[in-house]
Each structure stands twice: as C-alpha cells, then as structure tokens.
Design brief:
Length: 200
C-alpha cells in the first residue's frame, strides 16, 4: 500500500496528464477539496414515439366489403380442403381423439377452438326453417355463423335460439348458440361452465 505522500504525487500526476490545460494552482485547489469530479457529458437519448398503425373502422370495412364472399366463390367444393385442415387441427388439439379420451375434456377444447372449416348441422331451433341446415362454417361473428351448404348456398344462421352439432371421428359435440354469443377471438379466453340450464 502507498503512503499518503506517494498517493498525492500519483493523483497530481494523473490529473496533470488527464487535464493538461489546467494550471498547477487549479489542480492543487481541487486536491485541497479532496473531491475530484471528472467531467462527463451524457448525451440524452431522445425517444422516438412509435406511430400507431390505424386500422379501418367498422364503417370503412362495411363500405369496402372486406368480409363479403363473392358469389363466384360461394361453392362448397372450394372449401372442402379447409374442412380437411380443420379436422387435422382438432385432432392435434385433442391429441388424436382417442376412444378412451374423456368427453368433457374434448368438449372444453372444442368450445375454445376455431370453428372456421367445421361442418355443422342445425339440430334444434325456435325457427323451424333453420333445422337441418348443414354446411361448412366460413365466417363466425359475434351473433351469426355464415355457412356454405352442399347446394352452394351461403346461409346466415343466427346463434341465438339455435343448437348446432358437429361430428368428428365418431365424436359428436353440441353447441348451444345462445351461450356462444362471442367472437372467435373472445371465446379462447372465456371460461365456460360445464353445467347449466339451457333454454332455446
């Protein structure tokens, strides 16, 4: 360890090298105060504000007809590959839909699954004209399903007061539309009750 005199000499020589323009008197004055502040200017970084990308409003989407399916595209055969993809997606989601799988576990996963591409049938309805409609779900909105039938007809079926069934690998699931009044994105985060009273 250095003694005090050697330490002072070292500090004096260090300051002289670091600040050659400063006179000896100024350096000595700094040492007598026993505090040395080396000047350092920190550049302030200006934060750039991110511009939020503004999407279309609901009115603009309606005017642009973004969600409308063109008449020439309303053909059942076009969407059969989509149904095959959906079946594979559900099999992966439910780990193969094995015979020993617990039905309530599969049901809970189906309630949160994406239904675009699923073949559904209206089994019960307060409006008799909806009963028996079968087809592939092309679009799901909060209150309706848009379904393309084998007859190449696009049907708009309300969820309210309707019961839908879907079948996959022998497993039949029922969807009570009145309890299903959610967008597809909202359903994935919702907790559904396993038991409850269902009124059409």
């Amino acid at each position: 360890p250095q003694d005090s005199e050697k330490a002072k000499t070292f500090v004096h020589a260090f300051l002289k090298r670091s600040m050659p323009k400063m006179k000896d008197e100024a350096i000595q004055d700094m040492l007598t105060r026993k505090a040395v502040v080396l000047e350092h200017y920190h550049k302030k970084q200006t934060k750039q504000k991110r511009k939020k990308t503004k999407g279309f409003t609901a009115k603009q989407r309606r005017e642009l007809r973004l969600f409308e399916i063109e008449p020439e595209q309303q053909r059942y055969a076009i969407f059969l590959p989509l149904h095959e993809l959906w079946k594979q997606y559900i099999r992966d989601l439910c780990h193969g839909l094995k015979p020993d799988a617990q039905p309530h576990m599969i049901q809970s996963k189906l309630l949160k699954a994406d239904l675009h591409g699923a073949i559904v049938t209206v089994t019960k309805s307060k409006c008799p004209s909806y009963v028996g409609i079968t087809g592939i779900i092309l679009q799901e909105f909060k209150h309706i399903f848009k379904i393309i039938t084998k007859e190449d007809k696009l049907k708009v079926v309300p969820k309210l007061n309707n019961v839908f069934s879907l079948e996959l690998d022998g497993f039949i699931s029922y969807i009570y539309g009145s309890k299903f009044l959610l967008r597809a994105s909202e359903r994935s985060a919702k907790k559904f009750k396993l038991k409850g009273t269902i009124d059409l």
